[in-house]
Task: structure prediction
Amino acid sequence: MEASSGSGIIRIRIEEKSGFVHITITDNGAGMNRETLNSLRVGTYIPKREDSGIGISNVAARLKMLYPESAFHIYSLKGIGTCIRLIYPAVSPTESEKRCIS
Result:
């Protein structure tokens, strides 16, 4: 959301489709150029600032480690915003997780 003018909006949508959880996160921030986006997608992004973008690569790598059949997509347009989509298998909660939810 850096460098966006006015109020920033982040939308999070979570749904289950055909046994998979789909999490979509969108914002109306500054977006990013094609070069930055491509380097994030292939895991070669080197942030210019310490607090910029490194977490995205970590999330994608951990998701793939936990769920090899998962997917991580990132889309962005400079001046428009960014959309990140995570897709992974839906799993039933364990008994201890069920107790926490209740």
Remarks:
- The CA atoms of residues 5 and 29 lie 8 Å apart.
- Residues 54-66 form the longest helix (13 residues).
- The mean pLDDT is 82.
